């Protein structure tokens, strides 16, 4: 199957992704030097790689990216080496080079690679790379057009800048956990983190947006720049309407469980055989829901006729709706409400997600060759759908230092001089 077909949405589910790129990607010709690890930085560089950029991942000899050990589960290669599944989520389409940047030889190699790079991504502590001569100012002197992206927990300035930042801490400090979880006074009432590393992932996405903007500027002017991406900044920005609600009202939002602060009814309800999400987004949908539920008079009740009124009278309305929804099965509700144009749906487990006919039709799970020994690797696909330059899947996530000699041979006739004992 070609890469275009893999992104068309018309092929069989779970396709085997090609190792070759049939047509140039949108970022073909862009070289990215990836000095980041764990998730936020690698998430960004994998997006760039999927879009055609050449990404060279610099790793510590003998250890590599921290996430290689963040298991179980682990994925074993044909040569017997194994890495945690976590590592595979953000490192495809990259080449791994093992370099000890604490040594002069490793620093020299990174500088030579940076001289021909368009982008460098790093997530060291603030000032951490200056000791090695690999900070923005040092590399700018070598390559003035370099787009240098620093991803940290708290940014390059401010009182918290020196601190290490982890996703869990950021979810708490950003206010996200204060609005996530069951309401005070109810069973299980406490702030709850989101089940994936949303602060890391949002920082990775914002980093990608910033990099693309900076590349456009460099293309026009020949001038690079330093991007300062903070996990805390990014997560605060993703508070969106909740943050704006506070800024407009002065009242900190409270935890509502699965309910919505601005829209009612927009939450989880118990049905006869489980749980159902009902997401009524406007008054017309509420009228149609009431008709399907056999209570059309509710939509005419002044307490519920408008969304603002429903928010004001939330408790009374939800108490009325609970027994109505509990009287029928989830499948029954989904069938009738979908036909009526009322948004609703199930709460799927991940096995149900990847068995879902729509997810399968969209080819959101792919399979890549893991190594030359014939092993295969299932991966989540890139969700971008570009009609002319779709993402491609050229190389599986690399083994530690798999491409060290290959990459260094491009900058030095004797690449062995850069290698420490641990990386050979």
From TrEMBL:
What Pfam families is this protein classified in?
A: CoA_transf_3
Q: Which UniProt keywords apply?
A: Transferase
The ranges of region (Disordered) come to 1-25
Q: Does the keyword Transferase apply?
A: yes
**Superkingdom of source:** Bacteria
Q: Please give the PANTHER family that the UniProt record associates with this protein.
A: SUCCINATE--HYDROXYMETHYLGLUTARATE COA-TRANSFERASE (PTHR48207:SF3)
This protein's name: CoA transferase
Q: Which organism is it from?
A: Parahaliea aestuarii
Taxonomy of origin reads: Bacteria, Pseudomonadati, Pseudomonadota, Gammaproteobacteria, Cellvibrionales
């Amino acid at each position: 199957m070609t890469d275009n077909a893999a992104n068309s949405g018309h092929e069989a589910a779970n396709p085997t992704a090609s190792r070759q790129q049939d047509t140039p990607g949108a970022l073909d010709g862009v070289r990215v030097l990836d000095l980041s690890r764990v998730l936020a930085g690698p998430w960004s560089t994998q997006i760039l790689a999927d879009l055609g950029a050449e990404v060279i991942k610099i790793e510590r000899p003998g250890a590599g990216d921290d996430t290689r050990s963040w298991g179980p589960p682990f994925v074993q290669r044909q040569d017997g080496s194994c890495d945690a599944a976590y590592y595979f989520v953000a490192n495809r389409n990259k080449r791994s080079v093992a370099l000890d940047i604490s040594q002069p030889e490793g620093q020299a190699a990174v500088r030579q690679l940076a001289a021909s790079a368009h982008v460098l991504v790093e997530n060291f502590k603030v000032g951490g790379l200056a000791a090695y001569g690999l900070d923005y100012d040092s590399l700018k002197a070598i390559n003035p057009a370099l787009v240098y992206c620093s991803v940290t927990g708290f940014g390059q300035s401010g009182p918290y800048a020196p601190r290490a930042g982890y996703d869990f801490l950021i979810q708490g400090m950003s206010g996200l956990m204060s609005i996530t979880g069951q309401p005070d006074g109810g069973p299980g009432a406490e702030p709850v983190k989101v089940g994936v590393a949303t602060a890391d992932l949002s920082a990775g996405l914002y980093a990608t947006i910033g990099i693309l903007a900076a590349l456009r500027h460099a293309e026009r002017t020949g001038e690079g720049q330093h991007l300062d991406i903070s996990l805390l900044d990014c997560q605060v920005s993703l508070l969106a309407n909740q943050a704006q609600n506070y800024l407009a009202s002065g009242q900190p939002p409270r935890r509502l469980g699965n309910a919505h602060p601005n829209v009612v009814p927009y939450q989880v309800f118990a049905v006869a055989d489980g749980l159902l999400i009902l997401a009524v987004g406007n008054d017309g949908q509420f009228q149609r829901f009431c008709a399907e539920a056999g209570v059309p008079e509710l939509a005419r009740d002044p307490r519920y006729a408008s969304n603002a009124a429903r928010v004001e009278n939330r408790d009374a309305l939800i108490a009325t709706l609970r027994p109505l929804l509990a009287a029928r099965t989830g499948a029954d509700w989904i069938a009738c409400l979908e036909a009526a144009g009322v948004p609703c749906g199930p709460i799927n487990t991940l096995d149900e997600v990847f068995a879902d006919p729509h997810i399968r039709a969209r080819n959101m799970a792919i399979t890549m060759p893991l190594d030359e020994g014939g092993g295969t690797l299932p991966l989540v696909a890139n969700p971008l759908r570009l009609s002319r330059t779709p993402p491609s899947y050229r190389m599986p996530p690399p083994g530690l230092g798999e491409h060290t000699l290959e990459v260094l041979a491009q900058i030095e006739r004797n690449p062995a001089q850069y290698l420490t004992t641990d990386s050979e």
